[in-house]
Amino acid sequence: MNQTLTLDQSQTSSKSLLLGIPVHLYVVSICSALVIIGVLWDIAWHMSIGRDGLFSAPHNAIYLGAALAGLISGYQVLKTSFWGSREEKGKMVNFWGIFYSSLGGMFCIWGGFAAATSAPFDDWWHNTYGLDVKIFSPPHTVLALGLISIQIGAMISVLATLNQNEKVPYLSEIQNISRKIRLTNIFIFTAGMVMLTTFTFCTEFMGRWAMHRMSFYQIGAGFVPLFLLAFARASNIKWGATYIAVVYMISLWVINTTLRMFPAEPLLGPIANHVTHFQNTGFPILLVIPALVFDYLRDKYSAKNEWILAVILGVTFVITFFVVQWNAGTFLHESPLARNWFFSSDSWAYNNDPNASWRYQYTGWGTPKTAYEWSVGFLVAFVLGIISARIGLLWGNWMRKVQR
Asked: How far apart are the C-alpha atoms of 307 and 284, rounded to whole Å?
């Protein structure tokens, strides 16, 4: 009797420590971080060492995160489908007439399969065509879709639990409030991981060397408002976009700065730029400033028609993003003060020519030359920003209603 009582007390204490949040939500949230750590490590590996094997350390980190997210989500599906109560099944999505899963869990399972499929595909691609120098090769594209699916799955899983707004009976009133705060923080974290992965896979087009090209701002206008506004609106907090941007920036800076501490030497020729430590993708985009503007305008014009709000947010984003990042690019790419461990502007792949004219100077390629080119370039960016903002607001409204 005493042993049973002690066991029950231990279980209740454990649940209280987790604040009634299911363990698998913590796991998939950690997995969402693990996969992007593996991707950034893999990019640094390619920049510093060269060709890596199927089971290199960065690949194993990606596999572990993807497999764990897929497996624990799959376990939840089987557990709920065959041993779950009617109440538990009522909170899930029924598919194929047999299985019950959360929407986020389905994303995680699909993403796990996609990531697993991309691994042998990537190895075959290397063996057939040699070392790829582009992020968006076919196997990497499959991997990107799979990993973002896992991260969105983790985010939606947390959001569904948050939106249910249930009070856990064995928790006190203060603990239930803490539970909601913790769920919100986990959601902000997972949303930040989605932003980090999206920016990482756009590095090829949005590196510091591209910050004086109009395409940089057009690409940014095409996806940043969509993701950032959707996640900020779904968070239901005033400064949601700002917090998500901070998570993105701090996470990327910490991962990249940590990587540069470890020794690495090229093992694949030709070696044009001899390096002794891991190189990285550079300093984060200064997303926090446009995010602050987003949050201020979202609050100020919250009563406006959604299309009017989208126009305000889309146009303002392009202008703010341009002013901030153009000047940041000038510093990051051209100033000797940025060539250090903090800003990482001296980080270059081993196969880059150290004497290239574009190494520490903008060459003007991709920069508009005439007033007409500037006008057309900004017009395209404004249109993309407005459409992106409108879709983001719609997506955010949908995410507010997700409870399964």
From this structure: 30
Tell me the pLDDT tens digit for each residue of 269-310.
788 888 899 999 999 999 999 999 999 999 999 888 999 999
Q: Which residue shows structure tokens 């004497």? A: 355
pLDDT band at 4 (very low <50, low <70, confident <90, very high): very low
Coil, helix or strand at residue 263? strand
Closest listed residue to residue 112, CA positions, set 155, 67, 166, 82: 67
pLDDT in tens, 142-165: 777 888 888 888 888 889 888 887
Q: Is the pLDDT of residue 2 over 50?
A: no
The predicted pLDDT at position 13 comes to 54
What CA–CA distance (Å, rounded) separates 373 from 257? 38
Q: Please provide the DSSP assignment of 26-93 as one string.
A: HHHHHHHHHHHHHHHHHHHHHHHT----TT-HHHHHHHHHHHHHHHHHHHHHHHHHHH--HHHHHTSE
What's the CA gap between 178 and 353, in Å, rounded? 53
How much is the average pLDDT of 234-245?
A: 94
Residue whose C-alpha is closest to residue 146's, from 112, 104, 180, 122: 112
DSSP annotation string for 267-319: -SS--SS--SB-----SPP-THHHHHHHHHHHHHTTTS-HHHHHHHHHHHHHH
With vertex at residue 301, the alpha carbon angle to CA 299 and CA 302, rounded to the nearest 5 degrees, is 65
Is the separation of the CB atoms in 129 and 84 below 8 Å?
Answer: no
DSSP 210: G
Answer yes or no: is pLDDT of 137 > 90.
no
Q: Render 330-380 in DSSP notation, one character per residue.
A: HHHHH-GGG-STTT-TT---TTS-TT-TTSSS---TTS--SHHHHHHHHHH
